[in-house]
Amino acid sequence: MTKSKQSPSRRSYKLVASEAAIIGYVAYFAALSLKWLDIIELANTSVTFANVMVFTISVVIINLSVGLYEAKLREPFRGIIRRIFVSAILSFFVVAMFSGVLFTEFSPHPLYAPTAVPLIILSLVIFRYHIHTTDTFYSKPRIIVLGVGVRASVIEKRMRRDVDRANFDLIGFVPMPGDDNENGIKNETLLHIDVNEELQRFLADNEVAEIVIASDQRRGTLPVSTLFDARLKGITVTDLLDFMERETGQIAVDLMYPSWVIYSNGFQSQNYFRQLADFWINITLALIILSVTWPIMLITAICIYVDDGYRTKTSVLYKQERIGKDGKSFNILKFRSMRPDAEKDGAKWASKNDSRVTAIGGFIRKYRVDELPQLFNVIRGEMSFIGPRPERPQFVEQLIKEVPYYAQRHNVKPGLAGWAQLNYPYGASVLDSLEKLKFDLYYVKHQSLLLDLLILVRTVEIVLFGKGR
After folding, report:
1. Quick check: helix, strand or coil at residue 9?
2. Which residue in 64, 87, 166, 469 has the most C-beta neighbors within 10 A?
3. Taking a C-beta distance cutoff of 8 angstroms, is the pair 203, 235 a contact?
4. A single Gene Ontology molecular function, please (predicted)?
5. In order of start, what are the domains of the chain with their CATH numbers?
6. Which residues contact 432 (CB under 8 A, 6 or more apart)?
């Protein structure tokens, strides 16, 4: 069996075993290093072994939960680093809970965990970089696309760059009956093969791992028996919508159809206990952040007042009606970043270099300080930390008419930060709203505590490095 056909589960087992060995060695090396530097006395064998095992097991399990051992992980190397960072930090708290609270007899020196965690992160990043650049464990799956029409052209238009195709090897596109060739594929490799007679042999000869169904006309055109046989042989058969969702982290709204929504995974309704847990997590986190950021909020309010508040007699806070969960309206709170007469001619889309923004407003927008008052919206239960950004009623009414499935983003609470803001950070038109909706619906479909955590980590990075709007 060639490397490209190596079992995904076998590759995952090899990766788990390799990283478990690395984590265990590094965790033990951290204890030895502190001893060699005469910083601590080496603890007895049972204490060291217990903490090494807890670190190893917890990091591996959390790596598993964040998808780092997924055979078809579609994530750039930067995203893998983030997941490793999250996993190691969470493991730090697991070890602290294990040896500091549950089993105090296994408590290590206070410097042990802070030393082990950075070393584990560094070692895993180096190991993953080696894998990423050499394909030691994961060879790129070879795929073909059935279809060369309008639907198939979405891949050509939205995944033009090499980085967009870094996780797979696209062999080519197969023309299908009923395809709109005039408005379809323009600059891709076309595979002129008879799908009923030659496709099965082509799949075997070229070690194809996945078939993407992207034909414009499906009824009566797909080689069902060949696809059935391919599926039984372990070849993945994927709908275009699922493929784009997996590879781009968004849902192609303009290609959606009701049956796909009905039969697809995701869009799980939140049960009572999940909603209750989310409610208390959001409130607790909001209170913690509020207790830390109130000096920043006070300074910001004073700066806005000195800038133009005292002269115009306008409040430093800006209250605006927005649409929240289930289409209910609420008043969002923000620090005022625009001139008092910014909307004298009615509601307008904000633009990137908006002339209505004050000097102070530009700064607080860049670092998201203007959104700190929304902590009170979270405490009141009107918003969450993570979710689609709430829009104004005037725009929502327009967007529901012009953008398909736009109302479905209101199935969850709006948030201070969201998946769309990370992937499409600016929106000032109906077209932009359509693009952001693709990411919002991806979040609605896949919402989970893990996804929220990853969005939160990336948002903190944006805030710290001033990459905001």
Report:
1. helix
2. 87
3. yes
4. phosphotransferase activity, for other substituted phosphate groups
5. 3-134 (no CATH), 142-248 (3.40.50), 272-464 (no CATH)
6. 424, 426
Separation of alpha carbons 108 and 103, rounded Å:
11
Distance CA 361, CA 340 (A): 12
Handedness of CA 302, 305, 307, 310 (dihedral sign): negative
**Strands of the sheet with 210-213, listed across from one edge:** 169-174, 142-146, 210-213, 236-239
Cα–Cα distance measured from residue 332 to residue 173, given in angstroms and rounded to the nearest whole number: 48
Structure token digits, residue 449? 């505590």
CA atoms within 13 A on the CB side of 407: 8
Q: Give the three-class secondary structure for 112.
A: helix
For residue 213, give both structure tokens.
């169904």
State how beta strands 329-335 and 317-323 pair.
antiparallel
Listed residue (176, 154, 171, 178) closest to 227, CA to CA: 176
Nearest to 307 by CA among 296, 316, 295: 316
Please report, for residues 408, 424, 437, the alpha-carbon distance to residue 441 in angstroms, rounded to integers and kept in the order given. 7, 13, 6
Q: Are strands 384-386 and 329-335 parallel, antiparallel or unpaired?
A: unpaired
Phi/psi of residue 213, nearest 5 degrees: -90, 110
Q: Does residue 413 contact residue 429 with C-beta atoms inside 8 Å?
A: no
Closest by Cα among 453, 289, 459, 438 to 368:
459
Encode pLDDT of 415-466 as tens digits.
Answer: 998 888 888 766 667 788 888 888 999 898 888 877 887 788 777 766 655 5
Q: Which helix (DSSP H) or strand (DSSP E) does residue 46 occupy?
A: helix 45-65
Is the distance from CB of 80 to CB of 54 less than 8 angstroms? no
For tokens 């008052």, the residue is 373
3-state secondary structure of 213: strand
Cα 308 to the center of its chain, rounded Å = 39
**Structure tokens that stand for 175 in this block:** 């023309």
pLDDT digits (tens, 9 = 90+) for 377-395: 999 999 999 999 999 998 8
